[in-house]
Amino acid sequence: MFSCRTRGFCPSCHAKRLEEWGEWMRETLLLDVAHRQVVFTIPKRLRVFFKFDRRLLGDLGRAALRALTRYFEFVTGSVLTPGVIAAVQTFGDRINFHPHPHFLVTEGGADKEGVFHKIPRIDDARLAELFAREVLRLLVGRELLSPEWAERILSWPHTGFNVHSLVRAKTKPEAERVGKYMLRPILALERLTLLESDGQVGYCCGRDAERQEMEVMDYLEFIARVTSHIPDKGQVTVRYYGLYANAHRGKVRKASLSPTALRIVEEELRRVPAKGWAALIRKPH
User: Fold this and answer.
1) pTM (predicted TM-score)
2) Domain map (residue ranges) of the chain
3) Lower CB count within 10 Å: N or C terminus of the chain?
């Protein structure tokens, strides 16, 4: 689904496919547990690497996944497998290039015995630390960034890495709405204004209708911004990990198990002191 290279450019086509995907996700994929939307952002100075090598976008999503699973392990003391639907959005409110993974994540994960451990909250600041190290490790490994620069970025009071996990979906319909938001179109046609006499395009930016402001740009700049978000041929735009991965769901079907028949336990999160946390995030894995 959503393999079309023009995803987001045909409103009617996109809306129809989004409805079909949302229904499939709600009826077939989602577990009957609470979910969270977790959004990972990277510093502006690092975005250029992902603009000119789109293969790195998949790596960015996997870096976020490693950070998330390591966080769950640190706060519970167990290796847990969550259910994750991942989409790496490449656009910001101004149709600018702003790659950031959006995850729809189960609130917790299953251990090797199949018991689901419910994790009621996420410490965004600590998850952002893990995410920063995973992304910097990726860029250093690809020789796009030196180890010295990576350490310098980590030493800054504000690294530019951020995580937001406050959006919570208690029910499957709520999770479906979050999933559709993750796959929303690049731009909204109702926000577009053609200034024909000047050969310019206006686009209203901002989520709050009362505080929206119009950015005016040359029509060629507008075309350049929009087309910069077209996926490469064959590029996967939605990925499924953990409990939602095709391989895991195949094993469940083969064993004739109900995917929703989970034994759920409320997890008592470990208190990890600051010094202990610093040692954990530096631990190789």
Assistant:
1) 0.88
2) 11-186+231-268, 190-228
3) C
